[in-house]
Amino acid sequence: MLNTIQRLLTGIFVLLLVIVGATKQTVAQTFTEFPVNTTGAIPFGIASGADGALWFTLAPTSGFTTAYIGRASTTGAITTFTIPTQSSDPEGITVAADGVMWFTDSVLNNIGRVTIAGQIQAFPITTASSFPRGITMGPDGNVWFAEADGNKIGRFVISQQTFTEFTIPTTSSAPIGITAGPDGNLWFVESTGNKVGRMTTGGVFHEFLIPTANSNPRNIVVGSDGNLWFTEANAGNIGRITTSGILTEFPLPSGGTPLFIIAGSDGALWFTLNTSNKIGRITTAGAMIEFTVPTAGSGPYGITSGPDGAVWFTESTGKKIGRLSSGFLPSATHDLDGDGSSDVVWRNSAGNAAVWFMNGAQIVSANIATVPSAWSIVGQRDFNYDGDDDLLWRDSAGNTAIWFMNGASVSGTASLGNIPTNWSVVGTGDFFSNGYGDILWRDSAGDLALWLLTASGTILESGSLGNVPGSWTIAGIGDYNGDHKADILWRDSTGNTAIWFMNGLQVSSTANLGTIPTSWTIAGVGDFNGDGTSDILWRDGSGNMAIWLMSGGQVTSSANLGNVPMTWTIQVTGDFDHDGKSDILWRDAGGNTAVWFMNGPQVSSTASLGNISTSWMIQSLNAE
Fold first, then answer.
1. Is the C or the N end of the chain the one with fewer CB within 10 Å?
2. What's the 3-state SS for 538-597?
3. In what order do the strands lie in the sheet with 375-381?
4. Rounded Cα distance, 624 and 609, in Å
5. 279-296 pLDDT tens trace
6. End-to-end CA gap in the chain
7. Residue 417: left (phi > 0), alpha (psi -120 to 50), or beta?
8. pTM attached to this predicted model
9. 69-79 residue pLDDT tens
10. Residue 237 burial class via C-beta count within 10 angstroms: exposed 0-12, middle 13-18, buried 19 and up
């Protein structure tokens, strides 16, 4: 039946496709830029410090000789520390286990040390004119660095303040980027040697030739998948190499010059595109997307994952420190305007659709469109990764389509074809952690299928998840183990409760949560304490409320939320006040509507949202 679904991905649904608005101009992530006002110096390398700030190098421009080390708080407050020796040219920077920052000085041929207080000390490298570039803390706790002109990998033993240098087998290889691998080795890239190198801490080398000639690899980092990921500046590729040496290359969608790369808090890799003025993101499965930096021609260079979970980068031409908030941090669901607060989609018996844009208890309402009642909203998710959640529609004949939303306007549409009506949408979520909402299907016989979507609404991958007996139903889609991938919460007719932890099209593991009396039902899921993990909301037949706070797929604590008369029902959960924590939207039989603002297992405050005619219904299916 899965093949039947795939074959039926054709057809144009004129009824849904004609109601479109202006082309979307915004992007999912929010950029913030902080000017660096130091005269005659521009930022290059950047790293997160142990003090919760961002540290970066500032090299002098033409006609100037003073260099600096900069520090930026996550709110953008910038402090600079002058490097005492003139004509310094700092580039790479990293943090040591004791919280001290270390950097390379290519012109003065030093390794530098800067304390959190800004005290700077230099250590001359043994080989003259070695031109050190990349720097990292090694698995042995010492400082390791790449000597681009010296053709060596250097080690500085912090406790003894001594250098050891290891010559790379390939002559004139020009190593630049270096990182500590997950296998206890050092990994580096050879920009002119066109190789990825691996070296033990004892100096034993192994080199791997990159398939694309003259690719000019520049930087390397460990990904969340345990592989090494690197940039190819000339080739316009992102490369991946396993610890056993298997190489794969991923061409950039629009070319460009990728320079630095970092593993993000969302499990993906983020990189700078220097000449095209973009920040790129690639998942460990190879799905890419790019974001244009607001300042034109800013020359993004260094990049790091910040202590706040955002991506931070330097703008070497724009003379700024940039911040890009990641769309894969805990965020609001059913957020149609991308402001970080969940919104409420309504529809009445005449087919009119409308939205409440929420800001706590403050509401701005807008009409969306009128759609014949044969069509139903069966999901709300960001299907095109633009930061605004979209609407998934299906009609009574099985025709399925997406409205790409820009607030209350429909910026585009996509037909997903006609799917036999014995198949139902039973969930939406980002199962691949690539930023795109995916669609979970189930048929009347219990067969499960998953569609992993792209920005245009086409299917990147699809697969069967097997058959689950009809006594089991899906009770909620959420990220129950904090890996930024949607998981599936199950419950059977006798009260047994379990989770499938998902990794794209694979069930990576499962967890049994026990048997809960059937008088209790799962009333919603959401991240009620803002820890990046979905929690479970319960309610029994008498109106008693309880919450399970989850971590790593386990119930870490539970709490009683009191009793609410059964005339009131939970409509949907969402972060309605933009505090990073899910809240609870209520409605009673007479149309009275209210919200509980949550703080973990506590109701921090409540608000009445008024009385809405019962001809209007909140659209909550597959929205959480």
1. N
2. EEECCCEEEEEEEECCEEEEEEEEEECCCCEEEEEEECCCCCCCCEEEEEECCCEEEEEE
3. 375-381, 390-395, 399-406, 409-418
4. 20
5. 998 878 787 878 889 999
6. 27
7. left
8. 0.61
9. 999 999 999 99
10. buried
